[in-house]
Amino acid sequence: MRTAGRRRGRRQRALLCAVLLAAWEAAWGPLRYSVPEEMPKGSFVGDVAKDLGLQLPALKDRDAHVFDTGRTRYFFLDLQNGHLSMMEQVDREEICAAVAKCVLNFEILVKRPMNIYKGEVEILDINDNPPSFPERRSVLEISENTAPGARFPLERAHDPDIGVNSLQNYECSESSYFTLDVKTGDDGVKYPELLLVKSLDREQKAAHNLILTATDNGSPVKSGSTTIEIIVLDGNDNAPEFTQSVYKVTVREDVAVGSRVLQVTATDRDEGPNAEVKYSFFKIPEKFDKAFKMDSESGEIVITENLNFEEHEFYELVVQARDAGGLSSHSKVLIKVTDVNNYVPEIVIMSVFTPVPEDTPLGTVIAIFSVQDRDSGANGDVQCSISDSHPFRLEKSFDNYYRVVTAELLDRELVSEYNVTVRAADCGSPALQSSAVLALRVLDVNDNAPVFLEEHYSARVAENNAAGALVLTVRATDADWGQNARVRYRLAEGRVRGAPLSSYVSVQAETGALYALRSLDYEQLRELQLWVRAEDGGAPALSSNVSVRLQIVDENDNAPQVLLVVLVRDHGRPALSATATLSVVLAESVAELLAELGSAADEAALPAEAAAGLTRWLVLAVAAVSCLFVAFLLLLLALRLRRWHRRQLLPPDSGALRGVPVSHFVGIDGVRAFLQSYSHDVSLTADSRKSQLRFSAASSCDTLPARPPDEASGDLVPSEDQVT
């Protein structure tokens, strides 16, 4: 009943903790901060302690820190003030490239109880990069026969900043032959093109120099420029023409290296060498240069390295067709990469709470982990689960963060270890999955008292046992583990015949063996009742008791003894009396008599000196009684002989002895009557201390009368009824 009550209390406390935790998490969302790029190391980002509602001592006690995911760490938590600070200077363009919104995620991990809080820091762009061209000077060759209206793509500038700080416009120096036309592509990027507005004449002007300037809209405005040298070529009337102004193709990211992506085609209406067309990439970005290769003769574009959708999902290339006369035309190739489910979900175990105390409340966080899948779309959607056969459940914290919490109360005595398998599977086709094992050990709590193997113990012990003899062994087991299961035994306090129980028996603390500390005597102690307590080594310790009954078995260690107490009382007023103790010992000889008396004295439960004195007095008393008895017999015999002799000398009616009282003479018959009166009503028992010899009232003799009776008798021998 007591254990069940404790368990109900634990459930109620666990439910309360779970409700409070859920309410807290509902009130607090992810932490969000923003900071400009290029801030120096140690710069303030946000007040984490304040935003989480935690005091500074709590941050230290709970070991709060920014969790290390194995990637570059940009922030740290200062436990002195609770601030999130920059660990190093951050360049937004370096870590986020052209991403419109640069957000760095971080996780704050706390313990006791364990929890994780997600946060994000937006790195704000500053105008720290001017637009720049790949080359400070470029050359463009145009035939003098090129008709006005022809367009010539120019190499575009690059500004790693974003928003108003990025490239906003192009400007070109004034020219009567050319004008600048800026177009915006599907990706929002501005592309400069040179438009021929007037026919060229190589003989009038063989070269034209223009300055192309790119500007942003930051504060302050930054710009970059390049020089374009236009060389006017002689002859060749027609430039090559592509069959399409834009080529579009879609490829899977797992396409094999060496595969053909597409083939572009351009025709030239000229004849001879002026109609021979060569294909090439026009100002291909360096990062794309290793991914594709173009056959100059056929116009085929092939893949030269593995594509990665997660790195580049879209490629925009400019291809050029150039004839032998130097005329060229350009076209765009748009390559879209489709995602393939080629990444297995990755499970990152962030923290594991082990060993877990078995009295852990419900809803306690046991482990926190995250799942990452580098694929996109359905291929990157991950579903997590854990095995159902364990007393844990899986909860999703936020995004791809999960935590394992206790769903049932733990009991180490039932299950001491758990291997919880976490599975993560994406939604691709076919689905890819991974797993991780959480090895959890349950920590023992002292919640089980020792239990004796028997409800009660009993044993029979023969008296006169040796001191220190083993009586019996009690044994108790404890379902707990370690120190909590270590059982020690001890006697409950008690007294026996006025003496402490511990002076009679003792119990060995480790084994439960019960020993008799003294020789037991059945005639003094028939039975011994005691309690033994078993106590474990927990804190606080739990214990249980068991009753032990020891029955003392009698042995024939006492010879029978006869004790007579004789009472002599006179008839005076007041009456006076005296008593004497008479011990009757039957023996074949005097030597045996003395030996019996000595053994009887040794076995008497008296002190040694008193026993020795009693023995001496008994010997003297027996000798005195024997002498008196012999003297009495001799006296009776002498009187008998004297009477017989007088009868022979005096006549029968002689009155010489008429004045002597009859009661002064005792005959042989009187002696016989005396012996008979004291030789019955003897009762003996096996217990010599309880054996008795009693005289009946009819057999006891009063003291002899001082005066003879009123009526005189002539017979010297008294009759039977005259002897009292």
Automatic annotation (TrEMBL):
Question: Which stretches are transmembrane?
Answer: 617-639
Q: Which residues form the signal peptide?
A: 1-29
What positions does the domain Cadherin occupy?
Answer: 73-133, 134-242, 243-347, 356-452, 453-562
Pfam families listed in its UniProt record: Cadherin, Cadherin_2, Cadherin_C_2
GO cellular component, as recorded: plasma membrane
Looking up Gene3D superfamilies in the UniProt record yields: Cadherins
Annotated spans, Disordered: 700-724
User: What membrane topology does this protein have?
Assistant: Single-pass membrane protein
Report the GO molecular function annotations: calcium ion binding
Subcellular location(s) per record: Membrane
- UniProt key word Transport: no
Which keywords label this protein?
Calcium, Cell adhesion, Glycoprotein, Membrane, Repeat, Signal, Transmembrane, Transmembrane helix
A GO biological process of this protein is: homophilic cell adhesion via plasma membrane adhesion molecules
Question: Do you know which PANTHER family this protein is assigned to?
Answer: CADHERIN-87A (PTHR24028), PROTOCADHERIN GAMMA-A3 (PTHR24028:SF234)
The name of this protein is PCDG7 protein
Organism, per UniProt? Loxia curvirostra
